[in-house]
Amino acid sequence: MFWEKYANIHGKRYAHIINPAIGYLATGLISVTITGPSAEFFNAMSTSIMVLGKSRIETA
C-alpha cells in the first residue's frame, strides 16, 4: 500500500521517519493518521507520534 512507507532491514521493519533523539529510523508504528483543518500542523503531529513510538503513546 502506498501510505505504508517502511523498509525491512535484516528482518526488522523501519519507518521512513528518523528519530532525532537517536539519529536512526523510527520503529514501533507502521503509520499514524490524524485529520484536521491544517495539513501542515497535523503532518507535524503525526510525525511526532511516529517518533514517540507505540509504548510512549499507550502510556500517555
Lay out the secondary structure.
Layout: E1 6-9, E2 12-15, E3 18-19, E4 24-25, H1 39-52, H2 54-58
Antiparallel strand pairs: 1-2, 3-4
Describe what is shown at a glance.
With 60 residues, the chain is α+β, with helices and mostly antiparallel strands. The chain is built from 2 helices and 4 strands, in the order ββββαα. The protein is globular, with a radius of gyration of 12 Å.
| Poorly predicted spans | none
Quick one: biggest sheet? 2 strands, antiparallel
Kindly state the mean pLDDT as a whole number? 79
What class do helices, strands and sheet pairing give?
alpha+beta
The end-to-end distance, rounded to whole angstroms, is 29 Å
Radius of gyration: 12 Å
The count of strands amounts to 4
Q: How many separate domains?
A: 1
Overall 3D shape: globular
Count of helix runs: 2
What's the helix-strand series?
EEEEHH
Residue share in helix: 25-40%
Q: Strand sequence of the main sheet, in spatial order?
A: 1-2
Which descriptors apply to this entry?
single chain; 60 residues; alpha+beta; 20% strand; globular
Describe this protein's structure:
The chain is of the alpha+beta class and 60 residues long. It has one domain. Helices cover 32% and strands 20% of the residues. The strands form two sheets. It has a two-stranded antiparallel sheet. The protein has a two-stranded antiparallel ribbon with strand order 3-4. A hairpin with a 2-residue loop joins β1 (6-9) and β2. The protein is globular and about 40 Å long. The N and C termini lie far apart (29 Å). The model has no long low-confidence stretch (mean pLDDT 79).
